[in-house]
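Today's session is about reading a structure prediction critically. Students often jump straight to the picture, but the first step is always the sequence itself: look for stretches that repeat, for charged clusters, for runs of hydrophobic residues. Only then move on to the predicted structure, which in these notes is written as discrete structure tokens rather than atom positions. Here is the chain we will use throughout the hour.
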Amino acid sequence: MKKILVFLLMVVPSLVLASGDSIKLEHAQIDATDLESLKRGADLFYAQCAGCHSTKYVRYERIAKDLNLSEAYVKENYMLNTEVIGSTALSSMPADLAKKWFGTPPPDMSLEARLRGNDWLYSYLIGFYEDESRPFGYNNHVFRDVGMPNVLAGLKEDLGEEKFKAAANDLTNYMAYVADPVKVEREALGIKVIIFLLILLIPAYLLKVEYWKDVH
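Below is the predicted structure for this chain, in token form.
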């Protein structure tokens, strides 16, 4: 018992100090059923992000189906380097050029929301600030010395603070969808399975009572 108390006295202060140094993340409003938000986020992603970032684990055909978009719309607005609707969403920038320009190839965004978390992504998108010491003139509150330029600076200037945050939330919502495109279907199926198991519990209990009545 004494060893446990000593261990806690050693560990807890360290955790408190670590949490004190952490950056407070802004909360993202994620709703996989909000198709309008997902569409706005997809439009923004392919207008501002897809030139450098791929989402190689999702196909254009799936995006069209899930977001209730026509194939013609997806081909015209999202498909930058292919004509095949069944293709995965790859970046149009060669990795070697990206590494030369930015120091490292831009990450694929397919699973970034799962890796970083939705709040981290949202805080990153709205967290750029001017820093003349950086090559592109910007730094980021949640990713210090980031190599990515602030590609959304013009959008923020055009929209203003509040509308820009709403747009960044739509973009985060879309990236959360890309990281888990079957979330809505999975949750709906989960509810059905739970209801089925609850119904199955009734005859199972009655059968148990019947089997054990002579024992009791």
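Discussion point for the tutorial: Confidence is low (pLDDT under 50) at residues 5-21.
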